[in-house]
Write a structure and sequence with these properties.
The chain has 70 residues and is mostly helical. The chain contains 3 helices and no strands.
């Protein structure tokens, strides 16, 4: 069984806190961009699962914006 999102996030933060990582502006921006992409992907899947599927134009826009992460 996989951990819940909250548990997984907590574990990831705990692992990060143990590392000697310099959080530069570039790294912070990259992490924020990754989070934004993950949130968009989750929202798209949630919309599809709840029947509020994206229309063709919205799906194309989503893929243009987030396809590079797939």
């Amino acid at each position: 069984m996989q951990p819940s999102g909250t548990t997984a996030a907590s574990r990831a933060l705990a692992l990060l806190s143990k590392q000697q990582i310099n959080f530069t502006t570039d790294r912070a921006e990259a992490i924020a961009e990754l989070c934004d992409g993950a949130e968009a992907a989750i929202a798209a899947v949630r919309d599809m699962a709840t029947g509020a599927a994206l229309d063709d134009a919205a799906l194309a826009a989503f893929m243009d914006e987030n396809g590079k992460f797939l």
